[in-house]
Amino acid sequence: MNRSSFRSPLGRAIGLGSAKSGSRRWLAERVTAVALVPLTLWLVASIIAHTGSDYTVFIAWLRTPFVAGGMILLLIALFHHTALGLQVVIEDYVHSVAKFAAVIAIQFCCYGLAVFGIIATLRVAFGG
Amino acid sequence: MDVKTIAPATKALRIRPLSPNIQIYRPQLTSVLSIANRMTGVVLSVGAIGLVIWLSAAAAGPEPYDIVQRVIGSWVGRLILFGCTFAFFLHLCGGIRHLVWDTVNGFDLWSIYISGWSVVAASVVLTIAAWAAGLSVSGWL
């Protein structure tokens, strides 16, 4: 191989890898996935059970501690999983400076939406 | 990373085709489901925004909640919800398939195709079952 610089191939490669943080994200994606299996099935079943029910019935359901707690856990797991997943998609297809902007935007949107969802749930749970 | 940083200072640097060459590649169940898992993930991310809008409307009061319920209840709303339901079950079943793979099981060709077709069949059945249940609860069936 015809080298253009005096840096060794190893020297050029160091620092371009996962920087020893990749496995944590990989694991977090799996942990949130496992949590989302019962949580999302519960959500879908609940939505089906409340098809056609009016506002007061729905609010009475959502404000019980078990349901409000479940909904908050769902929002945390869902948006953590979403942020990790969308980041992988962006990192695979966007290879410019826009990558960093997109990854930051994804983080802001996901965790922002999670907070809005949690606040809405708490407002229903504790509201008058 | 571009090609030049990997192989610097070669005189005639040709841009070689990268695999998979999807223009001439015959799609198989494995690759289609892999792409589908990604696409349904992106679709469900949009669906997650819908969940937050729905909860926010419920917190805002009966009128905003009624507006959201009417949008969901419209034909376009139902069509989108049906698409999201199928995307959800495909991503759920595909995700469980991935979790099994994470235990280093089911990688031989026969298992891959059995699990792949199981994911497709389960997603279709669960989507139809969920909608049949929902429509029967609301008195449509």
Distance between the termini of chain B: 56 Å
Element order of chain A: H for helix, E for strand:
HHHHH
Largest β-sheet summary of chain A: none
Output the structural class of chain A.
Answer: mainly alpha
Strand-residue proportion of chain A: under 5%
Helical content band of chain B: over 70%
Q: Quaternary status of these chains?
A: heterodimer
Give the overall shape of chain A. Answer: elongated
**SS field, number of helical segments of chain A:** 5
The mean pLDDT of chain A is 91
Structural class of chain B: mainly alpha
Say how many strands of chain A there are: 0
Helix content of chain A: over 70%
**Strand residue percentage of chain B:** under 5%
Question: Which regions of chain B are unreliable across 5 or more consecutive residues at pLDDT < 50?
Answer: none
Low-pLDDT residue spans of chain A: none
The largest interface is: A-B, 41 and 37 residues
Explain how this protein is built.
The complex is a heterodimer of chains A (128) and B (141). Chain A is mostly helical and 128 residues long. Helix content of chain A is 77%, strand content 0%. The radius of gyration of chain A is 21 Å and the shape is elongated. The mean pLDDT of chain A is 91. Chain B has 5 helices and no strands. Chain B is extended. The chains are: A mainly alpha (128), B mainly alpha (141). At the A-B interface, helix 2, helix 3, helix 4 and helix 5 of A face helix 2, helix 3, helix 4 and helix 5 of B.
